[in-house]
Design brief:
This protein has helices spanning 29-40, 52-63, 81-95, 118-146, 157-161, 167-187, 205-208, 212-220, 230-240; strands at residues 20-24, 44-49, 71-75, 100-103, 149-154, 192-199, 252-255. It is an alpha/beta fold. It has one domain (13-201, 233-250): Rossmann fold, CATH 3.40.50. Helix 1 links the parallel strand 1 (20-24) and strand 2. The protein starts with 19 loop residues before the first strand and ends in a 6-residue tail after the last strand. The structure holds NADP nicotinamide-adenine-dinucleotide phosphate. The site of NADP nicotinamide-adenine-dinucleotide phosphate has 28 residues, from helix 1, helix 2 and helix 7.
């Protein structure tokens, strides 16, 4: 059977020239590394985030040596559906199309379930689970109309394993895997892929905020014996958003140093 295609000649990653990518919370940490990786490969990157991201996005743009690589800021709290829709519309008005959505923005509000307030539960579900759904909903009609899209949801090893003090976070990240698979099924015939990346413990401000004892435990449970680097997550995302990754959908790409297999 001939499965060859003029679009699948190289097997190598294609450049992302002409592609427009949204990265939520894309100005620092894992999101910053993803924005950088996509911009360096030629994509226009729209960082969607809350006001503190604006200045960091300018710094990120400057670190890429000016106009050859475009990273710009669009304000939206991903927990607010109307704000997501407004940001997506403004990106569409400016650039005409959106090819890639990376749902990266996330928060933690750690406490044992017994002590966790309803507000702490809800805040994490709103940002980490409803946020990705709202962003997907805001871009979906457009991607289906164009018959092309690459969506990546940043989940977590904690979504597979659970973690002491993270009932809200683990539930949101596990929910994201179900959302990923369902959306993958619903959009597969429209040229859209939907995948998750599940990082282990990565050296960002989110992990730096954890107690040192918890970081030490995480490291000791990681066979590779170190925290991951944000660029190691960006590399997995870059692979999944490639045009030639069109036969990969509904999957979870675990990048966790062997912590969960
Ligand atoms: P981070 O350094 O805390 O960055 C999170 C980003 O999300 C920030 O830019 C933040 O903006 C933004 N954000 C937070 N709430 C938002 C909202 N309501 N609307 C829009 N943007 C919002 O986190 P990270 O460590 O890079 O993590 C990135 C993603 O990877 C998260 O989804 C996280 O759960 C996941 N992850 C991280 C690890 C890890 O070990 N670091 C492991 C597994 C999964 P502000 O700075 O303005 O608040």
């Amino acid at each position: 059977m001939d499965v060859g295609s003029p679009h699948l000649a190289s097997g190598a990653l294609r450049r992302l020239d002409g592609r427009v990518a949204i990265v939520t919370g894309g100005s620092r940490g894992i999101g910053g590394a993803i924005s950088k990786a996509l911009a360096i490969d030629g994509a226009v990157v729209a960082v969607v985030g809350i006001p503190a991201d604006r200045e960091r996005t300018s710094v990120l743009q400057a670190s890429l040596n000016g106009s050859a690589h475009l990273v710009e800021f669009h304000e939206a709290n991903v927990a607010d559906y109307q704000a997501c829709e407004t940001a997506v519309q403004s990106i569409l008005e400016k650039h005409g199309h959106i090819d890639i959505l990376v749902n990266n923005a996330g928060i933690t509000k750690d406490r044992t379930a017994r002590k966790m307030s309803v507000e702490e539960w809800q805040a994490v579900i709103d940002v980490n689970l409803s946020g990705p759904f709202f962003m997907i909903k805001a871009v979906l009609d457009h991607m289906i109309e164009r018959q092309y899209g690459r969506i990546v949801n940043i989940s977590s090893v904690v979504g597979h394993m659970g973690n002491f003090g993270q009932a809200n976070y683990a539930a949101a990240k596990a929910g994201l895997l179900g959302l990923t698979k369902t959306l993958a099924i619903e959009t597969a015939k429209s040229g859209i892929t939907v995948n998750a990346v599940a990082p282990g413990f990565i050296a960002t401000e989110m992990v730096a905020a954890m107690p040192q004892a918890a970081i030490d435990i995480a490291k000791s449970r990681t066979p590779v014996d170190r925290l991951g680097d944000p660029n190691e997550i960006a590399r997995a995302v870059r692979f999944l958003v490639d045009e030639e990754s069109g036969f990969i959908t509904g999957t979870t790409f675990d990048v966790n140093g062997g912590m969960y297999m």
